[in-house]
Amino acid sequence: MYLTIQETAEYLSIEAYKIKALVLQGRIRSIHDGEQYLINKAQFTTHFEQVEKYQRMIQEYLNEPIPEDIDVKDED
């Protein structure tokens, strides 16, 4: 499914001028049909999957208990 720049901006919750800049920089793949840029929505699924993966990893790290320090009980 192809989206316009405005539709992509709404989908990603980013302002349209930023999407257009990313398209012009080549950081978002698009097709220009002579009038407007069309962006394939499927290219963002990998991005969202990676973001969710990193969020889970960070949450697991934050939930990990702090280990006891071995030297705390040492009274030399």
UniProtKB/TrEMBL annotation:
Matching entries from Pfam families are given as:
HTH_17 (PF12728)
A molecular function GO annotation? DNA binding
- Residue ranges of every copy of the Helix-turn-helix domain listed in the record: 2-49
Q: Which organism is it from?
A: Virgibacillus profundi
Recorded protein name is Helix-turn-helix domain-containing protein
Highest rank taxon of the organism: Bacteria
Which parts of the chain are coiled coil?
none
